[in-house]
Amino acid sequence: MDQVKIGQFIASCRKEQGMTQAVLAEKLGITDRAVSKWETGRSLPDSGIMLELCGLLHINVNELLSGERIMSEGYDRQAEKNLLAMKREVEEKNRLLLRTEYLITFPAILAGLAMVFTAAFAGMPDWLRIVLVVLAFAAIFSVAFIAVGIEQKAGYYECRVCGHRYVPTYRQVNLAMHMGRTRYMKCPECGKKSWQKKVLTPEGSRTED
């Protein structure tokens, strides 16, 4: 989706309705800075307020995401394009989150192990040795909890039994046995336990990271 085009369209529709950025922001319960970011193409409206925004601008969601008014004969085709574009964006954001998990996990583990080895083999007072070991394990466990949180929020898990895709709770993910990003959990749909793989989209073709 072209954020700049969408932003210019929002600005044009707002002016057609005789509203300033401040007035539109007040009606939506947000800041005028947020509206300014939309109109300059620096961000998009959150999905939670898109319908309300479209109502105020007298447009529909497909027109908003297209950045232009759509004639009725091209509506279905444009709707499909917008849905596909949104799906790709969600998938890419989830993929970036999962890459971030790796980027913060591996350096933390290596640093923690380095501190443990230093404490084990370097000459130093016992109290300093203990401090290094404690700091190392604290760092590893802290990053592990953060990494699990990222994994839990990015994408979905797919039940191997019924194919249902869902987002489990942090507690479910954290306590589940796992091999990499495949976790042994109970499916809320069929109620059966299985090794469930991480996927990036809620439906459609299977896309794994």
Output the keywords.
single chain, about 210 residues, alpha+beta, 434 Repressor (Amino-terminal Domain), 2 domains, 5-stranded antiparallel sheet, 8 helices, 5 strands, elongated
Characterize this entry briefly:
The chain has eight helices and five strands. By secondary structure, it is an alpha+beta fold.
SSE topology sketch:
Elements: H1 3-16, H2 21-28, H3 32-39, H4 47-57, H5 61-66, H6 75-121, H7 126-153, E1 156-158, E2 165-166, H8 170-175, E3 177-179, E4 182-186, E5 193-199
Antiparallel strand pairs: 1-2, 1-5, 3-4, 4-5
Helix pairs in contact: 2-3, 6-7
The largest sheet has its strands arranged as 2-1-5-4-3
Task: Tell me the β content.
Answer: 5-15%
> Taking all residues together, what is the mean pLDDT?
86
Task: Profile the largest sheet.
Answer: 5 strands, antiparallel
Described by the principal axes of the CA atoms, the overall outline is: elongated
Return the domain count: 2
The succession of helices and strands, N to C, reads: HHHHHHHEEHEEE
Q: What is the count of helical runs?
A: 8
Q: Would you tell me the structural class of the helices and strands? A: alpha+beta
Number of strands: 5
Helix content: 55-70%
End-to-end separation: 23 Å
Low-confidence stretches: none
Rg value: 24 Å
